[in-house]
Design a protein that fits this description.
- The protein is α+β, with helices and mostly antiparallel strands.
- It has helices at residues 2-33, 180-183, 218-250, and strands spanning 46-50, 54-56, 61-68, 75-82, 86-90, 110-117, 122-131, 135-139, 143-146, 149-152, 156-161.
- The protein has a 4-stranded antiparallel beta sheet with strand order 1-3-7-5, with no helix packed on it. A 4-stranded antiparallel beta sheet has the order 6-4-9-10, with no helix packed on it.
- A hairpin with a 2-residue loop joins strand 9 and strand 10.
- The chain is elongated.
- The two termini are 13 Å apart.
- Residues 33-37, 96-105 and 186-192 have low confidence and may be disordered.
């Protein structure tokens, strides 16, 4: 009789554990999926970034980003732009880990837009910056995120000319190489030209300003589902074995 009670208690414990696991997973899904994982975007977006080829050190530069959607349905997208060695003019970045320019930052300052790209149309955003040094200003690719898919523009290079002042300002990047007329007679007479545009990998960024619009990482959910399925199978086997043992003892 004592062994039968032990088997019965074990059976109830296994059933409780199975129910607890199921409820916990349901709560996790509700808390992390914002109502369910959206379908991954299967269309195509084209991201073009444009700006001037040449500018001066004191000039405000306007960079324009165009997102083209050739599909038959409009889509909502995040546009993420990382800023490098420039002074933001408009808009001012609100998301940055840089608290002091002398400190190493975990990530550069960035600009984030939430835009709707109409079907068969284009959405555009722009921002204004000022360069900090002369020479070639390199602006990395723009990242566009939409329902689990990512699209990138090409990088952009702008030649920043020397200042009109007669003295050589080394703190602004004026050197015999970049400003030969001002900074020395032994330098090349030709200023360096902008390199060819190339694809530059950009660190992944997941916007958090609007959690309901952030695409859910489906691979993590799939991994959790697999683990829970294995746990569920093991528990069911244990419960079935305990039930069978209880059945034999009652006979």
């Amino acid at each position: 009789m004592m062994k039968t009670n032990l088997v019965t208690k074990t059976l109830f414990a296994m059933v409780f554990l199975l129910l607890f696991s199921t409820v916990s997973f349901a709560q996790y899904s509700v808390a992390n999926s914002s109502g369910g994982a959206p379908d991954k975007f299967t269309g195509t977006l084209t991201v073009n970034k444009t700006g001037p080829e040449n500018a001066s050190l004191t000039e405000t530069i306007t960079i324009t980003i165009d997102i083209e959607n050739p599909g038959s349905a409009s889509t909502n997208a995040y546009v993420v732009e990382y800023l490098g060695n420039v002074v933001p003019v408009d808009p001012i970045p609100t998301m940055s880990n840089i608290s002091n320019e002398s400190m190493l930052a975990a990530s550069p300052p960035m600009l984030v837009w939430n835009v709707t790209v109409p079907a068969g149309g284009t959405a555009s955003v722009n921002y204004k910056i000022k360069p900090k040094t002369v020479g070639v200003l390199s602006i990395g690719p723009t990242q566009v995120i939409v329902s689990g898919a990512k699209f990138f523009s090409k990088s952009l290079q702008v030649n920043i000319a020397c200042t009109a002042a007669s003295s050589c300002n080394e703190t602004a990047g004026e050197t015999p190489l970049t400003c030969p007329a001002k900074c020395g007679l032994n330098a090349s007479e030709t200023a360096p030209s902008a390199p060819n545009l190339t694809e530059i990998a950009t660190a992944e960024y997941k916007p958090v300003s609007d959690p309901k619009s952030v695409p859910l990482d489906q691979s993590k959910v799939d991994e959790i589902n697999r683990i829970l399925m294995i746990i569920g199978i093991v528990i069911l086997l244990i419960v079935a074995g305990a039930a069978y043992m209880l059945f034999l003892r009652k006979k």
